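Work Package 4 report. The design task specified in the project plan requires that, given a folded chain encoded as structure tokens, an amino acid be chosen for each position. We show below one input record used in the internal validation round.
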């Protein structure tokens, strides 16, 4: 997410580096590039202008222009204004003990509303509270069936038209009222209403939602919008808020939107913050929206906190403890390396994970569009082609003949086996040094490591245009000629 915006903002800010003492003129030039980056990311025009005006007030001040590192100062200003643009956000669902909290979800068809109901229900269950789902989207029969399936997966009751008397089964207001009454009678902490959607905003939809709002009186109303629809999502949010007074927005498919303009615009246009974001199709793929963390990711500063939180949720804790004990004992093998990589995969696509590590958001671009998932599979193939002894002591016993055998078994070139062994040697020392450190401290160590390396993931990628075969005699002569020429050039430059 935000790939294009992040790249454009980085380019704009980097253009200010290396100019010495900046002037108001060239600072404004840089800010105009920031404005262009926002508009290209599909940020609403008025929002982009207002944002730029606020940034300009601070950026063209004496504090920045007189700074030794004005570009860094500008990053700080832009980060603060991005946070202000998207926040603040209250993530609490305000579930009160002893009463049933009613949550109403609304949105257009295709926004992910029904799935978001289930995701929200799972979040409530994880907090130790009971929850009921109400299937009130009577416009789309498939939605009723879908919510029923999701309810069974979660193990929560689903109230729908089938639970209603014949005369009331077609009235969404009656279904919602009966569902809330049932939840209160059964002492369920929260009830989530999945209301009807339309392909577009119309008067009938708004009247129906207003009737449910007046009759049931939900404690909170959330709008589900699809980030992929860009500014249409912002327009929808404004229309729904004008009709219902929304308490928050759940933005889906943000992981698939490279521009991210809707996320930056919705709070400014509606006054309603994004409360949660959908990051996948799985029921558990619902995250709290943190403006400060998102601003950091947009500016290439990473998001270690979210990465650590996600790792703590998804990593196999028993396996983590076993690895910790092995590291403390000074043991680290290629099997351990593979296990670590497999754990990392649980966090999602490697491109997403790299974007959450400070300074590594542009790694995918540095790798020339390399397929990191495919490259990881190549590494796994190499490791799986080794014997137990080879995986334990690769640098000591993997000689030329073993490299050829391993490469043949994995379907790779022998030099790729050598690259893995070299990479593992460096990794082993670092990992043993991390024994006893917490997850966050380990992430900080990774950050320090990547700062010392121009391309820490280079060996993960298959070299382009290199077959791994020996150079021909003609190629060797050309290479020697090129090297000799470079030596002569350096001598001339040094005056000798």
């Amino acid at each position: 997410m935000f790939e294009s915006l992040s790249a454009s903002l980085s380019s704009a800010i980097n253009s200010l580096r290396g100019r010495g003492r900046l002037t108001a003129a060239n600072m404004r030039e840089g800010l105009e590039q920031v404005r262009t980056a926002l508009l290209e990311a599909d940020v609403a025009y008025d929002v982009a202008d207002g944002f730029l005006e606020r940034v300009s007030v601070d950026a063209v001040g004496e504090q920045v222009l007189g700074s030794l590192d004005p570009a860094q100062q500008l990053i700080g200003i832009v980060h603060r204004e991005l946070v202000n643009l998207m926040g603040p956000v209250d993530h609490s669902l305000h579930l009160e003990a002893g009463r049933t909290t009613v949550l109403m979800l609304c949105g257009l068809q295709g926004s992910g509303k029904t799935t978001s109901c289930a995701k929200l229900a799972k979040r409530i269950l994880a907090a130790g509270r009971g929850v009921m789902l109400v299937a009130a989207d009577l416009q789309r029969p498939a939605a009723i069936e879908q919510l029923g399936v999701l309810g069974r997966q979660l193990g929560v009751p689903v109230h729908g038209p089938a639970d209603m008397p014949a005369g009331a089964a077609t009235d969404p207001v009656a279904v919602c009222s009966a569902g809330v009454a049932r939840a209160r009678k059964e002492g369920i902490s929260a009830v989530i209403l999945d209301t009807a959607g339309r392909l577009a905003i119309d008067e009938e939809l708004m009247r129906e939602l207003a009737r449910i709002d007046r009759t049931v009186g939900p404690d909170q109303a959330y709008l589900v919008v699809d980030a992929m629809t860009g500014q249409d999502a912002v327009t929808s949010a404004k229309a729904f808020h004008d009709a219902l007074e929304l308490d928050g927005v759940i933005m889906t498919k943000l992981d698939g939107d490279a521009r991210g303009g809707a996320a930056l615009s919705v709070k400014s246009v509606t006054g309603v913050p994004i409360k949660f974001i959908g990051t996948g199709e799985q029921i558990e793929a619902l995250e709290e929206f943190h403006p400060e963390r998102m601003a950091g990711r947009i500016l290439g500063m990473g998001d270690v906190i979210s990465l650590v939180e996600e790792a703590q949720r998804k990593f196999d804790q028993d396996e983590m403890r076993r690895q910790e004990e092995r590291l403390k004992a000074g043991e680290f093998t290629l099997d351990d390396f593979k296990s670590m990589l497999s754990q990392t995969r649980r966090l999602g696509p490697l491109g997403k994970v790299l974007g959450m590590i400070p300074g590594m958001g542009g790694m995918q671009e540095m790798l020339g569009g390399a397929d990191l998932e495919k490259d990881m599979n190549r590494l796994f193939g190499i490791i799986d082609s080794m014997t137990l002894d080879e995986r334990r002591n690769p640098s000591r016993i993997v000689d030329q003949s073993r490299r050829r055998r391993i490469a043949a078994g994995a379907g790779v070139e022998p030099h790729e086996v050598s690259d893995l062994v070299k990479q593992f040697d460096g990794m082993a020392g670092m990992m043993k040094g991390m024994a006893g450190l917490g997850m966050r401290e380990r992430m900080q160590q990774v950050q320090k490591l990547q700062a010392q390396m121009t391309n820490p993931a280079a060996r993960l990628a298959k070299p382009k245009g290199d077959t791994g075969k020996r150079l021909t005699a003609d190629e060797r002569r050309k290479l020697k000629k090129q090297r000799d020429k470079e030596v002569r050039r350096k001598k001339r430059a040094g005056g000798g």
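The beta strands are 101-106, 131-135, 158-159, 190-194, 220-226, 248-252, 274-278, 286-288. Validation will be extended to a larger panel in the next phase.
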